[in-house]
Structures are given as C-alpha cells and as structure tokens.
Write the structure tokens for this entry.
Amino acid sequence: MSTPNLSEEDIDDILYFARTNDLSELRTILTSLAGQTGHSQVDTLLAARDPDSDNTVAHYAAANGFDDLLKWLLTLSRPASTTSAPSSDTSSPAAPNDTPSASQPSATPTETNAKSSIPPPSLFTTPNALGSTPLHYAATTGALACATVLVEAGVNVRARNGVGHTPAYEAEVAGREEVVEYLLRVGRVEDEDEGDGEQKKEEEDKGTADIGERVEGMGLGGKEGEGG
C-alpha cells in the first residue's frame, strides 16, 4: 500500500500534538485522516515526519519524557498489547524546536530487563535525518521511563546514529547516569542471553571501570577513537 499523502498542515498538527502530549487531539486527527486516506493510523504516523529534522511523533514523545504517549503508540502498533492506555494530560512542557529539550528525568520505573519477543514497531526504530532513534533522544534528555518503554518494546540498545553514537554514549555525554546504568544493564543481559556476557559482567563486578569505560567496553559507545 502506498504511503499516505499528508498535507503540510496535517503533518504540523500531528507533530504539534505529539510535542504537547495532547493525546485527545492526536487521536481525533488520526481517526479523521484514516477515514479520508484509507490508511491505518500507524501508517499515517510514519508518514508524519518533520520536514527539516525528519523526526517522528516517537522522537518528540521520547525527548519530552512522554512515556504514556509512547505506551499508547505501542498499543496502536500492537492491538493485542496489554500496555495500559495513558491519560490525555496536556500540561507537560514540550520542545519548541527539533533539538531534544532537557526535560525533567522521569520517575524511576520498575526495574526489568524483559524485552518483547515481537519485533519493535517501526515508529520506535525509524531514525531521523541525523540517524538518531527515539531511544537516542530519551537517553539524551534523561527520560528513563521512555527509555524503558522503548527497550521493553524491543528496540536495539546498540543502534548508532549518524556520528556513530549509541544511546548509552549520548546519555553519558549528557550526564544522564541513571539512563546510562540502565542501558548498560540491559546490554549486559542481552550479551549473557547470547552467551558472551560473562567476561563483561566480571569486569563490571570488579568495580574498576568507570561509566565511560563500561560504555565503550560493552560496545555501547561512540566510534572507535572518539573521546567520551
């Protein structure tokens, strides 16, 4: 099926509602456009890309700490998901431009390393013009709850953006230690599941490596030769 042909106004409205966490209006416009174009709401969201940054609604939700919006996007992509529906709170601040804002860190989520066996929604893995995924944005702004939603949906914690940085590396540079520790923990569990994480776990347990060294040592950092 072809990509939905959205007007500039439609795209602006969809992205605005995502930046302001206005779920009620977002639902309304998606329902309307789905009826007009015959495309699904998910396809409509994938087609709504910022003309300059190529950001999606998931990038803006992750950057601003709107984990409830991400959960709703997940249920939209996976109708059978048991993820609870979010509220339509519109009071949260949002980034006024394409650069992720330094939003307040989200409350620490219940610790879990469980990842879905179902492939992650394309909306959660699609990079923007700079190669950054929504997880890169959540990591940069310290949105731990958003990072957790994305990781548990199955996104790649080692995805590299256009300059070769992973989410953990971006979090380290931004001083988001809580997110760094979470991504390192998830990465270590994935390594253990693949049968190659024992040595990396031993190195962490020794307590001899700082966060920056562990980011690089677990393959979660920037390009080879770059400083942290």
The chain has a mean pLDDT of 78.
